[in-house]
Design a protein that fits this description.
The structure holds two protein chains of two kinds. Chain A is an alpha/beta fold. Chain A has helices spanning 14-26, 46-59, 95-107, 129-142, 200-212, 256-273, 278-291, 303-315; strands spanning 2-5, 30-33, 62-64, 73-76, 83-88, 113-119, 146-153, 162-169, 176-177, 187-194, 219-223, 230-238, 243-249, 294-298, 318-325, 329-336. Chain A has two domains: 2-178 and 277-336, UDP-n-acetylglucosamine1-carboxyvinyl-transferase, Chain (Alpha-beta prism), CATH 3.65.10.20; 187-273, RNA 3'-terminal phosphate cyclase, insert domain (Dihydrodipicolinate Reductase, domain 2). The longest helix of chain A has 18 residues, at 256-273. In chain B, strands 3-2-1-4-5-6 form a six-stranded mixed beta sheet, sandwiched between helices. Chain B has a five-stranded parallel beta sheet with strand order 8-9-12-7-13. Classes of the chains: A alpha/beta, B alpha/beta.
Chain lengths: 340, 531
């Protein structure tokens, strides 16, 4: 049995979600202790429990400790099944974190899946729908994944009420090595708003457009019909190898310009350290490891990424190599572990 | 396994209401209750006023969205006037009486944030009295507009260390207060005081203090009044009467008052103690001395809070707390027809028997110190007792043969006398020795057995009987010898006066000769080895 210390690295929910995803794909049971031990309120919160329940459905798993506040969990998958279901997440938890947890397993399931997930589609501290749709999913499709994600209804934290629909068919992932190519193609900026003063989205896109020199025709602000107030702004940038996406969320009492600056800052960081940004680096590691190999170049590794590598190496016979690359960057390579 | 949480709560007709997407920008208690990231409501029992079904419908839909795990059940609750305490409490009590709780399997909570303050109070009372076996939940606004903040309030006060300490401290203060701050050591007495403190602050019923004369009944009654007054449980005055000091019309008039000309000598109106004690405390000592007619009137005054002043044809009202004192066996008095059974039944719910001072000799030392300090206070000058004098007085006072027949009255009087006689406010062994002799002669006939016992000890059972005059003197000499380390010291104490006048120089020798006259010596009377 694999034992994971929940306080490893940044000590949050990511180590739990990565472990669930890996356990489902490999069929290896695991125990995680001191769940979210690095957080002020440790233990399972509702959104983490939603991931555990969703994973348990996919893997027909036997679970111990799946209750609120629990600091330890034992997870034993018995199958890797697909199919249809609806998952509802309480307290407007992020749908996209559930997508990340179950998607790898659905690609390795014995049948096609059609999973509806209700909750928040645009939550701070979680990937937005647009990030998954435009940055992450195209890359794993290129690796061979047959997957679509549809935004049925946006739902902003804290009201929630959104829905995404994840459809996946059994697939075979192949290794992917991303070239270190940073020539810039199209750059766009988009904002969506729901029930917030009319010009918030416009002020955001305008600020970003001016800072980054984006043509006006690549700028758009839309009003969406969500069941609560919310606002999200993002920049999408094409390079020869991939599309990156940088997201910011409006919040009560936060100026539109501050949100815009955060997104523009992230974009400029990426221009220094690309072609893979810190979040995408984080997300790519698991599919590459499942495919058995791959490489990409990114900025200095975040603690999130290091935690992810450590967790993946507990479940899969792979090793990550992080080599220095030009401009203070890191070349991440994953390959088969050489038996010692 | 975590137990499911079931929450009962009223729909907040204002706070919970809201339409359109903007409603998510405002904290709504019932929705926030169900939106907690780390706590989850399994079943929400929502009490809805009949005219607010549409508000309820939106709230229920929002709860299901934010908390898909929650089952919501709606109940119609019709409060005619949500600000009328009686009807709100009644309606809520009726509603909860019809609910079944499953404390074995579920944790029940009551959300008190919604509804009027009147319903908050009612819900608190229902939970506090355990009619609803629930903990209370209070919610409020917080950094997250939807979730707000949630607090679970556990009414089991014993779980709150600081509150429990506070109460314990208050209790210690209260019992200490009742004891005049005297750190008494007698466990039975301390337990009694603690019980009296309990009853005094919790029950408005009459209290009956039994115990021998001078055991401290009236002092305790005064302190009970002072405690009630400090706690704002009474507003009126403290009035006291020793029933043995008034007779007949005098007693009636003293207690119930009279109108002008009610009897010879009633030249003006008199309110009477019971009326003066309205809203306060009436202490009637030696209640058994009260005549049967007055007893009947007192009973009526206790039960109906009204009575007839002497000579008046109009009743007056007075509500007072009664503390009664007696040193008689009231049950026997009642059996003999000298005390009314019905009055006894009315006043003996809380009966406390104060022990005689002789039964708690370990408390004499702290009481001695207290009396000395009190005397000094009253005299307005410094009065102290030197170490030797205090030790000698206590040796006598704590001796099992010292009767203390009039208890604190004797002790207090002894201290007053010693303090008055002491030169420069310093009580020495001289004053103590004099006082001991004085007390003995006071008790005199009251304590022949004690003297006889001492004499029998030293002279043997078959000894020649002595004249009472001699017996008292010899017994006193024996005790003094026992209280001193040497013959010379005992001699100095016994012949202190003549010694001061220098008419005697060898007190030890004088004492030896006195003892020899009875065939005794210092070793024989003290039981110490000969040196």
């Amino acid at each position: 049995m694999i034992t994971i210390d929940g306080t490893t690295g940044e000590g949050g929910g990511q180590v739990l979600r990565t472990s669930l995803a890996l356990s489902l794909v490999t069929g290896s049971p695991f125990t995680i202790e001191r769940i979210r031990g690095g957080r002020a309120k440790p233990g399972l919160m509702r959104q983490h429990l939603a991931c555990v329940r969703a994973a348990a459905w996919v893997g027909a798993a036997v679970v111990e400790g799946d209750e609120l506040g629990s600091s330890a969990l034992v997870f034993r998958p018995t199958a890797s099944r697909g199919g249809e279901t609806t998952i509802r997440i309480g307290s407007a938890g992020s749908c996209n974190l559930v997508v990340q947890t179950v998607l790898p397993a659905l690609l390795y399931a014995d049948q096609p899946s059609d999973v509806r997930i209700e909750g928040g589609t645009h939550n701070p501290l979680a990937p937005s729908f647009e990030y998954l749709d435009q940055a992450f999913l195209p890359l794993i499709r290129r690796m061979g994944a047959d997957v679509t994600l549809e935004l049925v209804r946006p739902g902003f934290a804290p009201a929630g009420g959104g829905e995404v629909r994840l459809r996946a068919r059994p697939s075979r992932l192949t290794p992917l090595s991303l070239p270190d190519a940073t020539e810039l193609g199209d750059v766009r900026v988009d904002a969506i708003v729901s029930s917030v003063p009319g010009n918030v989205g416009f002020r955001e896109t305008e600020r970003i457009r001016r800072r980054l020199g984006i043509p006006v025709e690549h700028t758009r602000t839309r009003t969406v019909a969500a069941d609560g107030p919310g606002n999200c702004v993002w920049v999408t940038a094409r390079t020869p190898a991939l599309t990156e996406c940088f997201v910011g969320y409006g919040d009560r009492g936060r100026r539109a310009e501050a949100v815009a600056d955060e997104v523009a800052d992230a974009y400029e960081q990426w221009r220094r350290f690309g072609p893979v940004g810190p979040h995408l680096a984080d997300q790519l590691m698991l599919p590459l490891a499942l495919a058995g190999g791959g490489a990409f170049t990114t900025g200095p590794l975040t603690m999130h990424s290091e935690t992810n590598q450590w967790t993946i190496e507990r479940f899969l016979p792979v090793r990550f190599a992080n080599e220095p690359a030009a401009g203070g960057r890191v070349k991440v390579t994953v390959g088969p572990a050489i038996p010692e | 396994m975590a137990r499911p949480a079931v929450v009962y709560g009223q729909l907040g007709t204002t706070l919970d209401a809201g339409r359109g997407p903007k409603r998510w920008e405002r904290w709504r208690p019932t929705v926030g209750l169900c939106a907690q990231p780390d706590w989850q409501v399994h079943r929400l029992e929502l009490l809805v006023p009949p005219r607010y079904r549409d508000v309820a419908a939106q709230v229920v839909a929002d709860v299901q969205q934010i908390s898909p795990e929650t089952v919501v059940r709606q109940h119609t609750l019709d409060l005619d006037d949500p600000w009328d305490f009686e009807s709100v409490y009644g309606a809520l009590a009726d509603f909860f009486a019809g609910c079944t709780f499953d404390p074995e399997r579920e944790d029940t909570y009551v959300h008190i944030t919604t509804g009027t303050h009147v319903s908050q109070i009612s819900l608190f009372l229902l939970a506090e009295s355990r009619r609803v076996p629930a903990r209370l939940i209070q919610t409020g606004t917080g950094p997250d507009p939807v979730r707000g903040l949630l607090r679970i309030i556990d009414l089991d006060l014993s779980r709150y260390d600081r509150i429990a300490k506070h109460f314990a401290h208050e209790r210690v203060l209260a019992t200490s207060f009742l004891k005049d701050g005297i750190a008494t050591r007698n466990a039975a007495f301390n337990a009694l005081i603690e019980r009296i403190e309990h009853v005094a602050v919790r029950s408005p019923d009459p209290v009956l203090l039994l115990g021998p004369t001078g055991a401290g009944k009236s002092r305790l009654a005064e302190r009970m009044y002072a405690l009630l007054r400090a706690r704002r449980l009474v507003e009126g005055a403290f009035v006291a009467l020793n029933c043995a000091t008034v007779r007949g019309d005098g007693a009636s008039s003293a207690l119930f008052g009279h109108v002008k000309g009610a009897f010879t000598g009633a030249v003006s109106e008199r309110a009477g103690l019971l009326r003066s004690g309205h809203g306060g405390v009436v202490f009637l000592d030696e209640l058994d001395a009260l005549g049967l007619d007055e007893q009947a009137m007192l009973l009526r005054a206790l039960e109906e809070h009204r009575f007839l002043p002497v000579g008046s044809d109009r009743e007056v009202d007075s509500k007072f707390r009664l503390i009664a004192g007696s040193n008689a066996d009231l049950a026997a008095e009642a059996a003999a027809g000298r005390f009314r059974e019905d009055l006894l039944a009315r006043i003996d719910t809380w009966t406390f028997r104060l022990p005689a001072l002789a039964d708690r000799r370990e408390d004499i030392a702290p009481n001695l110190d207290f009396e000395v300090a009190r005397f000094a206070d009253a005299a307005g000058r410094r009065v102290t007792m030197n170490h030797e004098a205090r030790a000698r007085f206590l040796l006598f006072a704590e001796d099992p043969s010292t009767p203390w027949s009039r208890n604190f009255r004797d002790l207090g009087a002894a201290v007053r006398r010693m303090g008055t006689l002491a030169d420069g406010g310093r009580i020495t062994t001289r004053e103590v020795d004099e006082e001991v002799a004085r007390l003995r002669s006071h008790w005199g006939a009251g304590a022949p057995d004690a003297d006889a016992a001492v004499l029998a000890e030293v002279r043997g059972p078959g000894a020649e009987p002595l004249d009472p005059f001699e017996a008292v003197q010899l017994a006193y000499v024996v005790r003094t010898c026992r209280a001193h380390p040497t013959l010379a010291a005992a001699g100095r104490a016994l012949f202190a006066v003549s010694r001061a006048r220098r008419t005697s120089t060898n007190d030890g020798d004088r004492l030896r000769k006195y003892l020899a006259g009875y065939g005794l010596d210092f070793a024989a009377v003290t039981g110490r080895p000969r040196v």
